[in-house]
Amino acid sequence: MQSTTWALGSRTPLMHGGAHEGSSLLRSRLERLWSARSLNSRHTTVSQRIHRSATTANRQSSRYSWKVLGARRKTLHPCRDIVFHQHDRCVSASSAAQEGQSQEEEDATKLASQTGSSLGSGSASAAQDAADETVAHAEDAAQQAVSTPSRWKRRWTIIALCFIAFMLCNMDRVNMSIAILPMAQQYGWDTATIGIVQSSFFWGYLLTQVLGGVWADKFGGKRVLSFGVIWWSMATALTPLAASLGLPVLLVMRACMGVGEGVAMPAMNNLLSRWVPVGERSRSLALVYSGMYSGSIMGLALSPHMVSRLQWPSVFYVFGFIGIFWFLAWEKNASSSPAVDNKISKEERDYITSQTIKQREDTKVPWKLILSKRPVWALILSHFCHNWGTFILLTWMPTYYNQVLGLDLMKSGIYSVLPWITMAIAANIGGWVADAMVQKGVSVTKVRKIMQSIGFLGPAFFLTQLSKVTSVGGAVACMMACQGLDACSQSGLYSNHQDIAPRYSGVLLGMSNTAGVLAGVLGTAATGMILQTGTWDDVWRVAIGLYLVGTVIWNLFSTGEQIID
């Protein structure tokens, strides 16, 4: 009588002669069952690891998304989504492993002869390899989500605040051109008195052009620009009180406002020479200077409504107090250079330092050396030639529309805003084009000469067309083209101070801008004298001649290379 052996988990007996085969089969089943359970345990561990990575990335993403702009959230959240996608894949793999385990246990209860199993050692090994790859990808995604740096740079904060400062600068400057009409009616001023009030701003403005640069190089651009904005904002807010106390007090207050605005350009130039790498310089300066155009647009657009609804003093009160809010934000978020800034990342500080000139403690200005350089005088004379035409267009444009084209004052004011819009757009486009040329290997000297030549020859050409234009649309289009091409100068001579003397860029801008302001004062006065006996064509001929002279001087003697250490 043959003895029998019972298979594990089975009621079916095996013949004693097949005991060896039954034992081997039983051991194989037990090994596969153990492999299935190990794989399930491994997938569970994988799932936990990925879940922890995803949770970490999610927390980091949530924490950063409350602190930075939406562009930064777009950097973190896609990485988090990748992590959770990998997590879902791993959960699916774990579920498949559990199903494999259940199937294996069910198969183990069947006859040992049913050798077809749903999970083999080869598939288990492949699943383990897939799990390893899933873990690697998921953990890499989680690490990338956690360690991705902010896209917002500290230098962009400085540029943005400088943009707002320049916007306030022109808002506070042009509001008088609107408020002067009701003020003249209230105080009984004649046209000569109105002219004195308008020009009193430039008395103080001329005084601090060079001083602003000296102060910026000595004390830092942050302090000087802080002083300038808070000073001219207070002077703006106190203008109604000064006017009520008498004309002399008003003239002094307007001159004080000019003192504050006079330091703005040199201080800004000093700041950007330390904060902005050379490859970003043109578009950064263009953006900041477009703040002036934006300020003129806003000032000319808002002031008439405020005067009509809230009386003329409201223009000075509101615009003045806006500057105080800017001052608070500036003091909290700005620094004179990356070296003293405690919010900048090490990577950005190292990058800026490698692309700019390091500031020295010795702040003594080498006046003799500066004045001995031909590119310096080319810059000063070109600035004079440029601003002669620019100030004529900006100050006499409404009068031209009224006298030549027959537009009323309201329409003249509206059409006068359009060239400012063109300048704001063209200045930024020109800045991007200039920087792109530099980054592609074009020399800085060639870029500066090309952009400034456009800034000279473009306005000169369209001024010659004004005598041939008879329609309002054609005249306005010529004016817009003049000012739009003129804005290319922001990537020409206005960027050149930092090129040739980065350590003394504030002083150099003060020197050239003094010449520019002087051209504006003389050009505005000369235009009135010419129109007494001549025509508008005579006015345009003088401006065209100076544009051509500036073009020759600039292309012969200017350079984009550093000439003063």
Q: Assign a percent range to the helix content.
A: over 70%
- Count of helix runs: 20
Strand order of the largest sheet: 1-2
Total number of beta strands: 2
Mean pLDDT: 75
State the end-to-end distance. Answer: 112 Å
Summarize the structure.
The chain contains 20 helices and two strands.
Question: What's the structural blueprint in terms of helices and strands?
Answer:
Blueprint: E1 4-6, E2 13-15, H1 19-65, H2 70-108, H3 121-147, H4 154-187, H5 191-219, H6 221-237, H7 239-245, H8 247-262, H9 264-275, H10 281-310, H11 313-333, H12 346-355, H13 367-371, H14 374-403, H15 409-439, H16 444-466, H17 472-486, H18 493-500, H19 505-533, H20 536-557
Antiparallel strand pairs: 1-2
Helix pairs in contact: 1-2, 1-3, 2-3, 4-6, 4-9, 4-10, 4-11, 5-6, 5-8, 5-9, 5-19, 6-8, 6-9, 6-11, 7-8, 9-19, 10-15, 14-15, 14-17, 14-18, 14-19, 14-20, 15-16, 15-17, 16-17, 16-18, 16-20, 18-19
Descriptive notes:
With 565 residues, this protein is mainly alpha-helical. Helices cover 80% and strands 1% of the residues. A two-stranded antiparallel ribbon has the order 1-2. A hairpin with a 6-residue loop joins strand 1 and strand 2. Helix 14 runs antiparallel to helix 17 and helix 16 packs antiparallel against helix 20. The longest helix is centred in the first third of the chain and has 47 residues. It is globular, with a radius of gyration of 37 Å. 45% of the residues are buried. The N terminus is likely disordered.
